[in-house]
Request: fold
Amino acid sequence: MRFYNGARERACRLGLADLLFELQDILLSVDVRLKETKDANGAAVLRKMIDAAFEARGGWEKTSTGGVDWTKKLRYNQTILVRLGVELQVSARSDMLIRDIVHLRNSIDEGLIDVGVVVVPDDRLQIFLPDRTPAFKDAIRYIEEEFREAMNYPFIIIAIEHDGPGEALAKQSRKA
Reply:
């Protein structure tokens, strides 16, 4: 995990720590076993597995296009509302990370979320996924070098690992 601009402290102060733990629990609940060979697995299946874990948990709102992938809010004393936004970037080109960071930035600026999280494969898992799939190191590079404005926002990067060897995750076929 990597925290930016006081994201850890903000999450704790606003009472989002429970949602962060819930997010970690959702990610850990996904049993990812794949063929441990370079580029041998499809990433879209991994994304579907993670989305299914969010749906199974309940209470998370999914945005299909144009916004933050998953959000959840907590209400305290009928008045205080806090929200966590999560972008999953496990199945697209690494340059799509910028779009996800922009979605999170805009949602924070518009008051729709209080802390933004980007979930990516860790550097080892990425080796076994298609070659342009992002990794933890890519997310750090985009935030710290290529889009430095992002370091001024309460962002968290979470890298996910796989659980061990298994059958290859099916690759998505292109339809003509």
